[in-house]
């Protein structure tokens, strides 16, 4: 159960880091590497050594006693070395009482080789998840509970359908479109029920997301995006499944899924408002209703576009500071694959959101007009 909670949490934080055992054909068959939870009992020694050839470079070694809290060696204590390079991106400097993730190389012939691979973070993330779910239910009531259910279903679709299908070699763009459609259908029918409002919101959302996906594909091909602008994408070349990924397709599928949330929000907002207008004023003409829906969309459009662009900008702040510190020219920045990818991601997502507005407004107006005609025919 705990494993599924951690997977669920990872989805919300947009951190999907599946942990798998790594096996190498060059290793002895009697050896394997496992992960286990551990706790630092004592820091026995903390020494800093200067590199003889480079006095500015210092290496630090900690000698620590750790207790294994899970796995084959649960309950056993070991004294191990924890080597630090001076790079905070890779170093795991520990103190007494820290809970850590241990990498254990178990050999039938020798004592296990144990090293510290990371801090234990999941319990704090689970606490944050519990706070999030509790607030949703306390403040949102029944709708909050429905939100929790739909978020859970979204996580299941991504973790157990979308990612496995891509990992099996299926086209990532089509897999993302199918996943986005499933998420949209399930979410709107649970939140809004089986009615005109939900159906028209689905039409607008799917239309906006598909348009964003098509536009991303066209523009991405024209500007020759590689999809290899991240370290994780490069690492996919060496996974044990030996799949030949379409990295550009992976990029576009990420844009589709990244756009989905904002487009769903604007689709439901417009459909719901138009539905309420029709209920309050049954005599309103389809033309006026559609005009009202477009006006509502215009009001929401600015803030939602800002939401997408600020989200992508926020994740790129270190990169932007790096460019600024070296006075990099705007022309060079715009032509970098990494920056072009982020710009395409932000702008295509915003365009998909904008396109969803008229699609939702016109589809809602058309569907409500048909519903009115049906009611009139029944009355006559």
From TrEMBL:
Keyword Membrane assigned = yes
Which keywords belong to this entry? Membrane, Transmembrane, Transmembrane helix
The positions making up the signal sequence are: none
Q: Which InterPro entries match?
A: YibE_F
Say yes or no: keyword Transmembrane present.
yes
Q: What is this protein called?
A: YibE/F family protein
Sorted alphabetically, which PANTHER family does this protein's record hold?
MEMBRANE PROTEIN, MEMBRANE PROTEIN-RELATED
Query: Any stretches that span the bilayer, and where are they?
Result: 124-142, 149-167, 173-194, 201-223, 243-264, 308-326, 346-368
């Amino acid at each position: 159960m705990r494993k599924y909670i951690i997977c669920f949490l990872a989805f919300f934080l947009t951190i999907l880091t599946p942990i798998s055992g790594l096996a190498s054909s060059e290793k002895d068959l009697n050896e394997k590497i496992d992960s286990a939870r551990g706790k630092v009992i004592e820091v026995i020694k903390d020494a800093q050594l200067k590199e003889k050839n480079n006095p500015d470079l210092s290496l630090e070694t900690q000698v620590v006693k750790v207790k294994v809290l899970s796995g084959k060696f649960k309950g056993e204590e070991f004294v191990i070395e924890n080597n630090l390079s001076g790079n905070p991106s890779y170093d795991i400097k520990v103190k007494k009482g820290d809970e850590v993730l241990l990498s254990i190389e178990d050999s039938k012939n020798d004592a296990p080789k144990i090293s510290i691979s990371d801090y234990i973070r999941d319990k704090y993330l689970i606490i944050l998840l519990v706070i999030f779910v509790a607030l949703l239910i306390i403040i949102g009531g029944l709708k909050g509970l429905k939100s929790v259910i739909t978020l859970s279903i979204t996580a299941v679709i991504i973790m157990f359908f979308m990612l496995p299908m891509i990992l099996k070699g299926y086209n990532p763009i089509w897999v993302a479109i199918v996943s986005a459609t499933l998420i949209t259908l399930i979410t709107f029918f649970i939140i809004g029920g089986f009615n005109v409002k939900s159906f028209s919101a689905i039409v607008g959302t799917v239309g906006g997301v598909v348009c964003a996906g098509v536009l991303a594909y066209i523009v991405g091909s024209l500007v020759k995006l590689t999809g290899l602008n991240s370290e994780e994408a490069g690492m996919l070349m060496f996974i044990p499944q030996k799949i030949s990924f379409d990295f550009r397709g992976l990029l576009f599928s990420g844009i589709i899924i990244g756009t989905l949330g904002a487009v769903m929000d604007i689709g439901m907002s417009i459909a719901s408002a138009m539905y309420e207008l029709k209920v309050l004023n049954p005599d309103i003409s389809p033309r006026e209703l559609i005009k009202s829906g477009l006006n509502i969309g215009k009001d929401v459009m600015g803030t939602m576009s800002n939401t997408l662009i600020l989200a992508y900008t926020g994740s790129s702040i270190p990169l932007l500071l790096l460019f600024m510190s070296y006075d990099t020219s705007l022309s060079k920045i715009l032509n970098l694959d990494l920056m072009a990818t982020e710009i395409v991601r932000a702008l295509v997502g915003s365009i998909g959101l904008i396109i969803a507005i008229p699609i939702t407004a016109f589809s809602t107006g058309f569907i409500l007009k048909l519903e009115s005609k049906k009611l009139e025919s029944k009355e006559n």
